[in-house]
C-alpha cells in the first residue's frame, strides 16, 4: 500500500504524489536508484507549512533520509554517494556506526 512518507496517510483525502528526493540534475538518478517517496499532494508535498517544498528543515531531513537509504541499499560510502549525487547531505555530525546498526536491525526482517 502506498503511504505518505511524511504523515503516513494513504491518499484518501489528499491524493499522493511521487516526489523525487533529489531533483534537478539528479532527478534521473533518483529514479534509477528508487529514491522517490509518496507525499500527500497538498499538505506534505507542495503547499503545507510542513511540506517538503515549503519547509527547508523537512527537505533537509528527507535528503538525509534519502542519502542513508541510497548508501545502505547500494553499500556506498559517503564518498560513493558524492560521486553519484555530487554532494553530501549528512553533514559533519554523521556517524557511520549508527547506519550500520540500522542495517543490522533491518536484516532481521523477512
Ligand atoms: Zn516534489
Ligand atoms: Zn502526508
What does this structure look like?
By secondary structure, this protein is mainly α. The protein has one domain (16-107). Helices cover 46% and strands 9% of the residues. It is built from 5 helices and 2 strands, in the order βαβαααα. It has helices spanning 27-32, 41-46, 56-74, 78-85, 96-107, and strands at 16-20, 36-40. A two-stranded antiparallel ribbon has the order 1-2. The longest helix has 19 residues, at 56-74. It is globular. The two termini are 18 Å apart. The site of one zinc ion has 3 residues, from loops. One zinc ion (ZN) is lined by residues 19, 45, 53.
β-strand percent reads 5-15%
Q: How do the strands of the widest beta sheet line up side by side?
A: 1-2
Distance between the termini: 18 Å
Structural class: mainly alpha
Amino acid at each position: 500500500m502506498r503511504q505518505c512518507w511524511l504523515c503516513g496517510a494513504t491518499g484518501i483525502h489528499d491524493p499522493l504524489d511521487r516526489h523525487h528526493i533529489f531533483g534537478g540534475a539528479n532527478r534521473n538518478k533518483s529514479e534509477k536508484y528508487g529514491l522517490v517517496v509518496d507525499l500527500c499532494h497538498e499538505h506534505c508535498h507542495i503547499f503545507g507549512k510542513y511540506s517538503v517544498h515549503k519547509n527547508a528543515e523537512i527537505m533537509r531531513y528527507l535528503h538525509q533520509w534519502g542519502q542513508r537509504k541510497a548508501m545502505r541499499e547500494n553499500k556506498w560510502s559517503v564518498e560513493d554517494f558524492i560521486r553519484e549525487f555530487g554532494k553530501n547531505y549528512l553533514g559533519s555530525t554523521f556517524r557511520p556506526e549508527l547506519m550500520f546498526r540500522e542495517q543490522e536491525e533491518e536484516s532481521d526482517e523477512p
